[in-house]
Amino acid sequence: MIDYVSALSIDFGLIVPEITVLVTSFVVMMLACSKKVSSWSSTVTLVGYVLALWFTTRQWGHQGSGFADMVTCDNFGIVFKAIFIVASIIVVFLGHRYLRVKGLHRGEYYALMLVSTLGMMVMANSSDLIVLFLGLEIMSVPLYVMAGMYRRSLESNEAGIKYFFMGAFSTAFLLLGIAFIFGASGTTNLRSIVTDFSYIANSFPVYLYAGVALILIGFGFKVGTVPFHTWVPDVYQGAPTPVTAFFSVAPKAAGFAALLRVFVYGFSEVTILSDVFWVLAVLTMTVGNLLALRQDNVKRMLAYSSISHAGYILVALVVGGADAVAAAIFYLVAYTMFNLGGFGVVTLLETRSGCKSEFNELRGLSKTNPYLTATLALFMFALSGFPPTVGFIGKFYIFSAAMQSGFVWLTVIGVMNSFVSVYYYLRVIKTSFFDEAEGTPVPAVLSPTIIIALVITAVGTLGLGLFPQQLLQLSQAAIFGMP
Amino acid sequence: MSEYLFLIPLLPLIGFLINGLLLGRLPRPVITIIACGSVALSLILSVMLFVELKSLPVDSRVIEQTLLPWISSGDFSVNIGFLLDPLSAVMILVVTGVGFLIHVYSVGYMAHDPGYGRFFAYLNLFTFAMLTLVLADNYLLMFVGWEGVGLCSYLLIGFWYHKKSASDAGKKAFIVNRIGDFGFLIGLFIIFWNVGSLEFDVVMKQAPLVFAAGGALITTACLMLFLGATGKSAQIPLYVWLPDAMEGPTPVSALIHAATMVTAGVYMIARSSSLFVLAPDALMVIAIIGACTALFAATIGLAQNDIKRVLAYSTVSQLGYMFLACGVAAFSAGIFHLMTHAFFKALLFLGAGSVIHAMSDEQDMRNMGGLKKHLPITFMTMFVATLAISGIPGFSGFFSKDEILWKAFSSDHGHVIFWVIGVATAGLTAFYMFRLIYLTFYGNERMSDEAKHHLHESPKSMTVPLMVLAVLSLVGGLVGMPHIFGVTNYFEEWLGPVMAGAHEPVSHALASGGGDASMEWLLMGLSVALVAVCIFLAYYFYRKNLKATTSLAEKLSGLRTLLVNKYYVDEVYGALVVRPTVYFSVFLWKIIDVIVIDGCINGMARLGGDISDTLRHSQSGRLRNYATIFAAGVVVLVAYFVFG
């Protein structure tokens, strides 16, 4: 039980990790002003993230609420904050050399990333719709800028503009949805909504249900749910690759944190939600997979692949309940590992001059970079869900949760989809291992930072696949801290 | 001491790992030391544990060691555990003892082979698998060993894989064994389904409570286990792989295809004796199959000219004896014959190997003759083995064979017909074995001059194992002398506690008074007399009067052709089983696989691709289209929530 007196209090202890990230972003921004010290920005960013991660882990098990009940600190939010930070750390390692090669290595990049992470953490740390919205905006605005950071590239500019417009469009619906809910219930606090749900549902059903639909659209947009996914391929392909890697993992995880909290906890009594999520999950995984089949660009293929993975996680929202939430968290951690790994290799390959991540460029890769290609193959196997990688275990938990709740057809469709996806993932392996290069292939040059990123992700992909128990227990302990 | 039980199978495994992983990188003396040393250590440990087991009181002669839990899933749990009781103690002594001698022999025999390291690696792996088979404390681990020896058998039959006939023989052995393994597995499923465990201990105790004696269930289970045994131990109808297996190096034939692996079926049935006594019908089937195989294979052995093939059919025939013993519920007699047979048959094969070695790889007895003076040690030892297998009184084979014949006649499950077939087989055995001796060691030297030039006695590493085995063939039977000799049958007494659940009439002969004893003397006398006659016939036809042989062969040319061609069983199997299977496979491949399945899959793939192409148009890159799709989604969703 949350103590209501303390819930009103101002307790900065609840938001120490957020403050750390915020302060780091200010420091980095100041460093960026001077050319001399701006190259320090990546190091400072890392230090800030590690500190924030440390503070976050210290919060584990200490549930609390404060700032007029605007901030809710619970294990669920803490796990998500840890996911954001770990993903960001990997992205920092993974992008370092790419940004230097492309002339993008500037302090602003890191400052923007930090601010965006702050937004995600605010989202994960709250059970108030207004604060959720605030976090979403803090997260999104830097993302628009990051997508368009590569000014000399038309695609990057296009990505920034498209993301911004579509993002603004969806935000309007989200805000309208929150307004409807407020209109119906007189509050934006999820706990109050849960308490008074039957009263609200009886008094203002239209506003309530319209509000729920609109909020679903707003967050669904962020995780790339079909039919609100249209921005994903263009933005993922156009944005600088480390930024895409970041997009594909961190904001998606934040979106799911919000979706899980609002719909599994807040609106759990809206019975038709399960049906809606059923349709959305099936649409998302199927459309994502089908569109990925015929892509010739690896980045674009991975963009569609990330849509289909969102579809698998949506299965957990169909099922609802503690087991499904644990399965979703497990899957997100797993997905963070192998998806960042896959993007890491793509990023590395793009540092070769004139490379745009077309499938053709993979030819003959196993001859020039055998170990790198083997790592790439590991990530592709994980993405397609082969044992003994964590990709298999993640899908297994999700689908077994669905089976236990009697969603047989959903499971069948999910498994069929994951079967279809094998085609395009294995195509990467086939091209890089078995196709002969035209002319002499250029070997990719590894840098220490990218090696660190790839080692972390590869060890995570394989290690968590072989020993999933610890992570599973962690996911099961990541419960909502609300009565 | 007992805590070292697991080392007995483990040591050869370590030997295999070292020699197998460092294939060909080690100098030959090191390979030799690792391979022979690991088995020698196992042998020493086996002897020590045997002594320890013997020191225990009769009723508690069981040493168990559970290493680790292996599979644990719901109600089903299996450990990796070993069980040493009087039965497995006999087996490990035979396996490590004979195995060690054959390892030593191979050092000389394989000395010039480029695959020396590989050979010893396989041989060690085989020893490991065989020891796992006999030491396992549950059916599943036994099955692991069972499959392991099958694998090694395949690898070693096809050891000279560049020879097509050798690799074909390897495949044949493997495939035929798979049929038997299928039966074995079905048997295990039935047991597990009803008893809920695969531990020997539990199964043997529970079986009488769970299964109705003589019921269909237990009979099916036992017949399925026996089907497994017919595959591994080369009985009708699955014996066809064993003669072809002679393509392997001769030490392999001696170890795997005579002394140890092929007896696994007999061991398995003896181990499951408590089950089999519940199914008298299954026992009768075993006795009939065993007796028929014994006689049938012996007749084929009469007309073979390849020295190893004669021995191969002889092995099939002798295995038939062992199953006959099991079939009349005289399990310890079967195991006794298993042991003596391991001695003299291994000796015969190794002797044959020595002959082949001396003859520059010639195996046709028609091109031999007069080798007695060139290979004196080989001759003497092989002669001892021949006397043993023929059942000359005093030699090991006499005691074990006589016990089987007596039990076939006198047991509750026995019948006089079994005895008749057994005795007839004994006569045939004496005949073809002496034929082998006369053709090989006596008479004119029929080999080419060049081969004659190369004739030499084998090196010490080969002759010493021969001599040791000759001693064992001579005295090995003394542990199991019949009661009518006025002595204790130590062997039967030793195995008594294991077979207690089988209610074997341990003291049958003793209890059954004088009338039976005189009957036993009579039957023994008859069989010995028949053997003597057959030896004389062999002497007459193959030594004294060779012309008579030719004229007899002409008179009986039809029968002779039938025997030379092994009753055309391979051809019949080819027409009835192999070719229809191949035709059916081609049908499955060309029609079902290529047209139906590939067609469906390719069609699905094309459909997916086409849908993908169509959907791609939705991704036009135009912001207004994106917004439209988005807005449409909003309308549908909100409408559903509000009105749904």
Q: Main β-sheet of chain A, in a few words?
A: 2 strands, antiparallel
| Structural domain count of chain A | 1
Structural class category of chain A: mainly alpha
Tell me, briefly, the overall form of chain A.
globular
Order of helices and strands of chain B: HHEEHHHHHHHHHHHHHHHHHHHHHHHHH
Helix content of chain B: over 70%
Give Rg of chain A in angstroms: 21 Å
Distance between the termini of chain B: 77 Å
Using DSSP, what is the number of strands of chain B? 2
Task: Set out the fold topology.
The complex is a heterodimer of chains A (about 475) and B (about 650).
Chain A: H1 4-8, H2 16-33, H3 41-59, E1 64-66, E2 71-73, H4 75-101, H5 107-124, H6 129-147, H7 154-185, H8 190-195, H9 197-203, H10 205-223, H11 231-238, H12 241-266, H13 272-293, H14 298-319, H15 321-350, H16 365-368, H17 370-384, H18 390-404, H19 408-434, H20 448-466, H21 469-477
Antiparallel strand pairs in A: 1-2
Chain B: H1 7-21, H2 28-55, E1 63-73, E2 76-84, H3 86-109, H4 116-135, H5 139-157, H6 164-195, H7 200-210, H8 216-232, H9 241-244, H10 250-259, H11 264-271, H12 273-276, H13 280-302, H14 307-327, H15 331-358, H16 376-390, H17 396-410, H18 416-441, H19 449-454, H20 460-475, H21 490-499, H22 508-511, H23 513-544, H24 546-555, H25 557-564, H26 569-616, H27 623-643
Antiparallel strand pairs in B: 1-2
